[in-house]
């Protein structure tokens, strides 16, 4: 509230259309003056000057009484524009009844003259180029009917009104789309700044406390170590959240299997549900023992392909949990290339002995063969596994962006 006046400040909405509406209001007043001047100069030459004077009086009263209706989009309603266009068309057609055939054949101006263009321009600004085309076509038909045929000067004026009104209508539609895009960009920028501010505050307070609890808990051992581990997991989850990712609780294999059994059957050829951010599917795997590194922008894939790739990453991390030991750490790196998406899963475990994978397949344990390589093969991608005993294991998953 303004303390000096005691009034609340008004929010002013900037619009690219506002100057056009003001220009239209000025155009109607100026063209009314022009039409009146033409009538007064030629009033003795009309076949029925009284009828022409009556129409010019109605046109003057209508224009002056409704001048503020065209100052904004809210006031300039479609019924008003329809009435405005009706008055313009009536004046054009009435010219043939009140003027002499000689003057009409000589190319004299109609009663509303160029005032009729204001009605068409109002349609263009209000409803875009399509309605402008309809309005200008009606004005063109009325002018040709008044003239009795397609004379050169009449066709010239008709084409000029038709092209200019459609061009203005198209420009208005483009300006509206640009204004909406700008408003959306400003909202996103404001939200990003607010998120950055919150991230700074969280980093300076909550994240530092959680990191300290993790370090002290690990040093003290016992129950404090478990508390430190939980604090470390929450630190990673919160850090991912403030960085713009989506954090979901990681679930056990049994819970996922129960969800699959309860879910309705989906045909194998069901179309994907649109693009999906791969980061959101991989974020549940991040924790105290798993570090996720992904681009700052969304990594978009078809929903079905992204889900399969995330499942392959989960299978690789399950192998780390089972075979690399409880103290092993894993790193997941996501690379967003123009033609493909590459996800690398690396751990610091003891590695896989030579021939171990072939023995596992013969024994019926098909985790790597089916859960990882099989998924990527079905998607048209590839899975490369590199392991050196004593130096950990690295799984590189590549999936093309196109359909398999």
UniProtKB/TrEMBL annotation:
Pfam family, one: HATPase_c
Oxidoreductase listed as a keyword: no
Membrane-spanning residues: 20-40, 46-67, 79-98, 104-125
GO MF entries: kinase activity
Domain Histidine kinase/HSP90-like ATPase: 304-403
Annotated keywords: Kinase, Membrane, Transferase, Transmembrane, Transmembrane helix, Two-component regulatory system
InterPro entries (alphabetical): DUF5931, HATPase_C_sf, HATPase_dom, Sensor_HK_TwoCompSys
Gene3D superfamilies membership: Histidine kinase-like ATPase, C-terminal domain
GO BP term, pick one: phosphorelay signal transduction system
Name recorded for this polypeptide: Histidine kinase
